[in-house]
């Protein structure tokens, strides 16, 4: 399998290199040159397989020759062995039609663990015994930082520098990052906002002198391997609900369009997906794009579902590219226009292609709270605010009532205890596996939010290019 850039001007890469590279050199994102096709027999053969065995079958065509089946099995077994549920991503039934796919049984209680636990192991596998050393730099408003740190802590060949806005992440989120004391983990609290932290990271990637000294890498969802790992649970859930004979719909609380793009990939591979429901909060650029073709940014409104508070959804470019004949030149032009005016119209081909598979909804805070209350009182299930946005959209969508609708439960409710309590009146306790989080020692440094302070700090600690 080879990977091509959505903007058509970067070299094609194999799986190993696409995993170690973030953005393509032309500013685009890597996608497979073609979608592997699963026949109905291939899908039927997934019945009864464990999560790990399902993962190996679904990912094998993307990995190609870069890992043997045994190597892939060993990495998946270790990554998913850290999950607290034997089914890794269990399905829970809410009513006759609605299901939750619980993706939060990993070490940091959010769905990002499913992909990042594996990505950390891919990095180590591909770097051990080489003279390449990765310097991962990221900014986080909470979930990505803790999942990425847990995934690479103590691994060979990588250092991680994670910037968070000082005093502006929850105590649980901060402690999940700062109590990891491995020597390759560097937590930096920036005096400033999340946007300031993110701007500092972008400036490092765009600084030729700095990126000449260190092999910088990213762990956000522009990384193809993360999306690939997420395709697995769409197959795992749909097969349990009757695929390939029966179609299944998915409702996905969406921010950067990574999780729901993985659902699109599953459909392209042959999984019978009736609809993918893109659920947004009031930061609704994706709902506007899918319902009226208007992809234009505004200002971010902070909400109780902070992992969905975004202005620009990086992975949307992958969908637009695939829907419009995979024309890298045209895509580069469309994105250049967007980057200068912060707005673009989808083409007719893009709108029609998207309408065939996607529905979308913008969920107001009142509907989100109502979904949390409904899940608690009618189904005995406490859900987090992100999941509630997905569930609210799932319950409103107009679909054939015989089609099961699976809402992706992207975070454990204990990660957002205040919002859960406001809606339902009760607090979700932290699960036992993270129970002593508040007794553990923390380690992080506070830096002013200036480029000089942050780059000097990293340069003193990172391993330079060989
Ligand atoms: C990251 C995140 C999302 C959004 O996922 P995308 O892949 O960016 O669309 C939704 N919910 C939670 C809890 C998250 O951490």
First-last Cα distance: 29 Å
Tell me the CATH topology of the domain at 86-109 and 224-424: Rossmann fold
Oligomeric form of this entry? single chain
In which order are the strands of the major sheet placed? Answer: 3-4-14-9-10-13
With helices defined by DSSP (H or I, 4 residues minimum), what is the helix count? Answer: 19
User: On the 0-100 scale, what is the average pLDDT?
Assistant: 95
Strand fraction: 15-25%
Care to count the β-strands? Answer: 15
Percentage of residues in helical conformation? 40-55%
Uncertain ranges: none
Write down the Rg: 21 Å
Annotated CATH architecture of the domain at 86-109 and 224-424: 3-Layer(aba) Sandwich
List bound small molecules.
pyridoxal-5'-phosphate
What's the story with the biggest beta sheet?
6 strands, mixed
CATH class of the domain at 86-109 and 224-424: Alpha Beta
Overview of the structural elements:
With 466 residues, the chain is α/β, with parallel strands linked by helices. The chain has a domain at 86-109 and 224-424: Rossmann fold. It has helices spanning 15-20, 40-44, 51-63, 69-81, 112-127, 143-152, 171-178, 194-205, 208-213, 224-240, 258-268, 285-292, 316-323, 328-341, 348-357, 365-379, 385-396, 417-424, 451-461, and strands at residues 3-5, 30-32, 91-93, 98-102, 134-139, 158-165, 185-191, 215-217, 248-253, 273-280, 294-296, 343-345, 358-362, 405-409, 445-448. The strands form four sheets. Strands 3-4-14-9-10-13 form a six-stranded mixed β-sheet, with helices on both faces. Strand 9 (248-253), helix 11 (258-268) and strand 10 form a beta-alpha-beta unit. Helix 5 crosses helix 10 (224-240) and helix 16 (365-379) crosses helix 18 (417-424). The radius of gyration is 21 Å and the shape is globular. 51% of the residues are buried. It binds pyridoxal-5'-phosphate. The site of pyridoxal-5'-phosphate has 16 residues, from helix 11. Its cofactor is pyridoxal 5'-phosphate. Pathway: Amino-acid biosynthesis; L-threonine biosynthesis; L-threonine from L-aspartate: step 5/5. Its EC number is 4.2.3.1.
